[in-house]
Amino acid sequence: MQLALYEKYDLRLPRYTSYPTAPHFHAGVNGDVFEGWLGDLDPDQPLSLYLHVPYCQEMCWFCGCNTKITKHYKPVAGYVDALVGEIQSTLSKLPEGKKFSVSHIHFGGGSPTIMKADDLRAIMTTIRARLDILDDAEIAVEMDPRTAKIDFMDAMIEFGFNRASIGIQDFNETVQRAVNRIQSMELVSDVITNLRDRGITGINVDLMYGLPFQTLETLRETVDQTVSLRPDRLSVFGYAHVPWMKKHQQLIPTEALPNTQERWAQYEEIQNRLAMHGYVAIGLDHFSHEADSMAIALKNGKLHRNFQGYTTDRAEALIGFGPSAISSLPQGYAQNDPALARWQRNVEDGKCAIEKGVALSASDKLRREIINELMCNLTVDLDVVCAQFGTSADRFAPELERISAMSADNIVEVNGNNISLTETGRPLVRAVCAAFDTYLDPAHGRHSQAV
Q: What's the pTM?
């Protein structure tokens, strides 16, 4: 019965790291609009920063990120110079008179560890010169264990980094070779040990299911090996096979990918295995220790979701730097040009690199809050949320009617205007969110599977 439900609702849907979602961004939001938004920000509200480093030394064939492969350092050095220039130019557009503070800084990629230690120092020195980094700020970097160097970790300590996210995906050698991501358990363990020896105790790890040649047995082994490394948090993602968007995914042997039944079994196996090891399920695909700040945020109803997934970051304004980076401001979303060469030319010419975005209407903000509540807390009280926006939940009668079918299938429980996911429905939360998405056109959109 459960498999039949999963097949019924396992649609290709957005991941809802924003609303409206990125396919609905448009060129009407350009650099001039973005600069105006920056100029209206409140200096009393802390900022969040995301810095994208697109370079990698090798292509992981499962990758869905905006990346560029290089074996040489010269393009990385040029990129760092441009990134520093973009930081200086963008932050100069903030209101004058009071220095802004920063509560979160996140380096993503690509592989930020492809940079040299002095590159990290140059970027962080530029940020420090223009912004006050709060004492309790979370400063994190995504790390490829194959390129993580000791001197880079030493530079992290100099600038107060306190969290690292390690890409594991899978420890099975057959799976690793099928996706071109070969790294040993010993290598990953050494990197985590070196981080902890330097006082960086916040350790995230990424795992994936739905990869070629994965079995329930190999996944159990990977989970148990990973847990032995004692990470604070885990992100467990279903592989999104979108070869029409990412051509390198055509190198993955599709005949070795799990079918729908196998994929769901893998998802449930990882969930159960991590629960057995004492980890708390966070939303759709994250796990943490009960004492971790993310589990505490969930318990207190303060969990949030942004382009990096689930987060404790509650900053109203997130500014993104680098090609394809998305800024999320109170007024709307703005995305940098994803083409590295065009982005770099614009930055070096002193121009804003924004390519597209979307301004948020009052309806967008209301629906975004409903979707965020569902994605983070797996429940939403429409009366409460609508009251915050000065409107009535009666406007969502059509959405509640669509969700009623899910209620009959034990995906959700509906009590008046309160919607709660069941444990059966947890992995299908995106399908529930889709009922509130007025932009979604399933007939023409090409997204990843719901799980």
A: 0.94
